[in-house]
Amino acid sequence: MKKLITIIIPSYKSGKLVISHLKKISKKINIIVIENSKDERLKKQIEKNYKNTKIYLQKNIGYGRAINFGANYVKTKYFFVMNPDTIIYKNTLRNLINVAEKIKVFGSICPDHIENKNKKKVKIVEKNKSLFGLTGGAMLFKTKIFKKLNGFDDNIFLYYEDNDYFRKCILNGYDLYIANKCFHYHKKRNSSSAIYKNIEEKNYFKLISGWHGQWSKFYYHKKYDGYFPTLIKNVPKIILMLLQLNINLFFNFSKAKYIYFKIEGLISSIIGLPSFKRSKFDRKI
Q1: Measured between alpha carbons, how far is 214 from 205 in angstroms, rounded to an integer?
Q2: CB burial of residue 118 (10 Å; 0-12, 13-18, 19+)
Q3: What is the pLDDT of residue 10?
């Protein structure tokens, strides 16, 4: 296993979850942690107790870019990406490698969701030509193919990075697969695994998430469907959000602020600004 696979864990203020994984994963497997919050305490703890793990502290460069950064240090044939809040099971990695060795050429192989375990599926692995059913929280890559495709889009800071990569695979003729006999559980799907110091920081992350959700969605559709078709589809959304903003200014200021961030993110993407918004609580490097 050590010569075949490396695990990459992109993290943002998720030190406790990362450590819980390192305690359970075999010490014979190489692990790379990219910590996007400059957690010096986590770095010292990992370097002291987990010799099979390399940790790199980064400014908050985002999920996709963190994976790209980690992939530069991968020396094995495959690497497996998992969120800190993703759970994998005893034979997940071994079964994924067995599938990968049979397929040989692929864009990505994702383990199935644990809730599908009792569903009757004859095939061990299935092609997945749409983006549905795949998960960005647990993905196996063949290192050479990932690098050949230039990994994730560095322009995307948060959200849609996995959709973008999967779509790029399909367009370049690399099939995507779901392995039916190995499983994962993403216990906080569509939410953050970060541990915040206070409610203000948590609430601000929600605002940032709204901003990037809109920025990335427009960027993604513009990239593949064209600028003007995407713009036309978003005009009704802009009008609706402006109406919601004005109404909530009088009745729910917190919601109005969230809507404002969403509008700002969408407009920023429309006019071609980069995904620049970051949390004011991020530590600078």
Answers
A1: 14
A2: exposed
A3: 96
**Strand-strand pairing, 78-82 and 138-142:** antiparallel
Among 238, 236, 213, 234, which residue's Cα sits nearest to residue 225? 234
159 vs 209: CA distance, rounded Å: 9
Look at the block and give the residue holding tokens 């849609």: 160
Does 129 have pLDDT greater than 70? no
Strands (DSSP E) found in 68-175: 78-82, 86-88, 108-113, 125-127, 138-142
Q: What is the pTM of this model?
A: 0.91
- Token digits of residue 67: 């994976």
CA distance 282 to 236: 34
d(CA 277, CA 285): 16
- Kindly indicate the confidence band of residue 192, based on its pLDDT and cuts at 50, 70 and 90: low
For the chain, the residue count is 285
Provide mean pLDDT across the span 236-258. 95
Q: What is the mean pLDDT of residues 259-267?
A: 98
